[in-house]
Design brief:
By secondary structure, the chain is mostly beta strands. Helices cover 3% and strands 41% of the residues. Strands 15, 16, 17, 18 and 19 form a 5-stranded antiparallel β-sheet that branches. The protein has a 4-stranded antiparallel β-sheet with strand order 3-4-5-6, with no helix packed on it. Strands 7-8-9-10 form a 4-stranded antiparallel β-sheet, with no helix packed on it. A hairpin with a 4-residue loop joins strand 1 and strand 2. The longest helix has 7 residues.
């Protein structure tokens, strides 16, 4: 954790294991993350108070040899959405939800032989957006939440990954295969309706269209007015790349 006012870092977890895919609770009070404790595979979910007080709380342990990654925490703090996958090729992630009430028993959202990643819940809790290669290329899909059987709508036509919602749930963003951040207007309560995708920002992000990274490469503020983007430029203290062009080189050969 980094205090941006004082620029002071504070360690949050101390167990000798890999802790990955940290996701904030909507109110910032807690962090959920995956950990490889007791195994060399990321197979457990934990949560911890974000101020560092107390120990981590175990939420869910997956099967042996399974990878788990937390993706999103619902705005009402009732659900955590995560993926479960087995190591191997081709990669297949299935989407699950962990309720933080009642018996806290995880349940599958989407299970198939296709990859489902980058799932994000709309702030109003109605919709689940994710990208999947079910159509042959990764496209953005939206379905109802938590009952995903009530419909299925494809938002993109030319491919896309990493959906993000505006706080009012009336605009959806995603990363196009050309590295552009796109915006789509959204309306509808029971029936989802998406507008025509429009480019917003050109980035230097390179998208692996056959198997996108699990990580997210950008984020957006609640009002949709500012974006934080990973840019792949040379370091400030590195020498700039240069290209040398040699013209009329055949004349130089004749002189020799």
């Amino acid at each position: 954790m980094v205090d941006l006012t004082r620029a002071v870092p504070t360690r949050l977890t101390f167990y000798a294991a890999r802790d990955l895919n940290a996701v904030w609770a909507p109110d910032g009070s807690r962090v959920v993350f995956a950990s490889a404790r007791g195994d060399n595979v990321i197979s457990q979910l934990y949560q911890k108070v974000s101020n560092g007080a107390g120990a981590e709380e175990a939420l869910f342990a997956g099967d042996s040899g399974e990878q788990i990654a937390a993706l999103d925490w619902s705005f009402d703090r009732r659900y955590i959405v995560f993926t479960r996958s087995k190591l191997g090729v081709p990669r297949v992630h299935n989407l699950w939800a962990l309720p933080l009430f009642g018996d806290r028993k995880p349940f599958p959202l989407l299970q198939s032989s296709f990859d489902q990643v980058h799932a994000q819940l709309s702030p109003d809790g109605r919709w689940l957006a994710y990208d999947t290669n079910e159509s042959g290329m990764y496209q953005i899909i939206v379905q109802p939440f938590p009952e995903t059987t009530g419909g299925k709508w494809q938002v993109t036509a030319a491919g896309g990954i990493e959906p993000r919602w505006r706080r009012d749930a009336r605009e959806l963003y995603y990363l196009g295969f050309d590295g552009k951040i796109m915006a789509v207007s959204v309306k509808g309560d029971r029936i989802f309706e998406a507008g025509q995708p429009a480019p917003l920002i050109e980035t230097t992000i390179t998208v692996n269209v056959t198997q996108p990274d699990d990580a997210y490469h950008y984020d957006v503020t609640a009002d949709g007015q500012r974006f934080l983007v990973l840019s792949y430029y040379p370091a400030a203290n590195s020498a700039p790349a240069s290209i040398t062009a040699v013209v009329n080189w055949t004349a130089a050969l004749r002189k020799k």
